[in-house]
């Protein structure tokens, strides 16, 4: 079987700007949930961004925060790892209890016929020196991605250059993304946020793209990144004005909470958007009324 690429174009249609659903659809669903992923596919995205931790029983669990309800997911069993509840959620219902796993999301994407939608996995760390936990999650994730890299479009991102470097060494054919945000104190476990330093660090760690926080996005960063052969994926864009500005700067993708807003904004700018992939999961329907 041939290698999967990370093209996110709809079938038969070229899409210039990749829409990345941040944790699924944070505008209307709890983050990192099966309901959120299903809704993202229904709306139509080029990529679904998820956050990943390794539980104490070696499960790759999808959740943004390590600690919820006083329990650290890294020290808990998967069955005790609850779904994150995002305060902006307005239309979700409390059907899901346990946080989903990477394997479950991979199965969902196969079921939806969405293996060309990029599964964009952010490896969560504390931004410290590469430690035993970092080694364990890199090893566990690499094994899963190695098994699925021919059947699912995959990308890996992290704020931690040590993590990106280790993943790139294990899986050199999977694209890596250097995440960056403004910080007061530099750390070996965080990419720098100044444009030139970020691009240099991204290249040195084996990344093929940079993902700056939207407040760091500027023409110089985009121009320098593209000149260095790096793609640019700013996060998290929340308004039509931010999306229009990013498109004007020539970014390659946008990470958004509101997929419907992003689609409307891009279409208004003459951009093609990904196709909708509606599916039905009985587990998300709730009990009959």
Q: What report would you give on this structure?
A:
With 289 residues, this protein is of the alpha/beta class. The protein is 30% helix and 16% strand. Helix 3 packs across helix 4, helix 4 packs parallel to helix 5 and helix 7 crosses helix 8. The N terminus is likely disordered.
Short description:
With 289 residues, the protein is α/β, with parallel strands linked by helices.
Features:
two-stranded antiparallel ribbon, 289 residues, alpha/beta, TIM Barrel, disordered N terminus, 30% helix
Considering DSSP H and I runs of 4 or more, what fraction of the residues is helical?
25-40%
Q: Distance between the terminal alpha carbons, to the nearest Å?
A: 46 Å
The name of the CATH topology is TIM Barrel
Average pLDDT works out at: 91
| Radius of gyration from CA coordinates | 18 Å
State the low-pLDDT regions, or none.
1-15
Number of strands: 11
Shape: globular
- Main β-sheet: number of strands, strand sense, barrel status? 9 strands, mixed
Instruction: Report the order of strands and helices.
Output: EHEEEEHEHEHEHEHEHEH
Furnish the topology, listing elements before pairings.
Layout: E1 18-22, H1 34-43, E2 47-54, E3 60-62, E4 67-68, E5 71-72, H2 102-111, E6 118-123, H3 132-148, E7 154-158, H4 161-170, E8 176-180, H5 195-205, E9 209-212, H6 219-227, E10 231-232, H7 240-249, E11 253-256, H8 259-268
Parallel strand pairs: 1-2, 1-11, 2-6, 6-7, 7-8, 8-9, 9-10
Antiparallel strand pairs: 2-3, 4-5
């Amino acid at each position: 079987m041939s290698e999967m690429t990370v093209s996110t174009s709809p079938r038969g249609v070229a899409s210039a700007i990749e829409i990345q659903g941040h944790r699924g659809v944070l505008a209307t669903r709890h983050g990192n949930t099966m309901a959120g992923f299903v809704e993202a596919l229904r709306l139509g995205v080029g990529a679904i961004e998820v956050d990943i931790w390794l539980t104490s029983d070696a499960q790759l669990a999808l959740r943004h925060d390590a600690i919820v309800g006083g329990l650290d997911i890294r020290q808990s069993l998967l069955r005790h790892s609850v779904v994150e509840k995002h305060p902006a959620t307005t239309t979700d219902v409390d059907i899901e209890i346990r946080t989903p796993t990477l394997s479950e999301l991979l199965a969902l994407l196969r079921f939806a016929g969405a293996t060309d939608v990029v599964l964009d996995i952010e490896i969560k760390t504390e931004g410290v020196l590469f430690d035993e936990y970092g080694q364990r999650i890199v090893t566990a994730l690499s094994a899963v991605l190695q098994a699925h890299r021919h059947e699912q479009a995959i990308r890996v991102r992290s704020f931690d250059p040590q993590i990106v470097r280790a993943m790139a060494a294990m899986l050199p054919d999977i694209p890596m993304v250097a995440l960056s945000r403004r910080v007061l104190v530099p750390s070996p476990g965080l990419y720098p946020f100044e444009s030139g330093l970020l691009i240099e660090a991204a290249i040195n760690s084996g990344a093929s793209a940079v993902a700056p926080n939207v407040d760091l996005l500027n023409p110089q960063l985009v121009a320098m990144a593209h000149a260095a052969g790096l793609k640019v994926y700013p996060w998290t864009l929340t308004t039509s004005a931010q999306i229009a500005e990013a498109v004007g700067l020539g970014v390659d993708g946008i990470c958004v909470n509101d997929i419907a807003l992003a689609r409307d904004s891009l279409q208004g700018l003459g951009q093609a958007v990904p196709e909708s992939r509606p599916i039905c999961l009985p587990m998300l329907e709730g009990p009959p009324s």
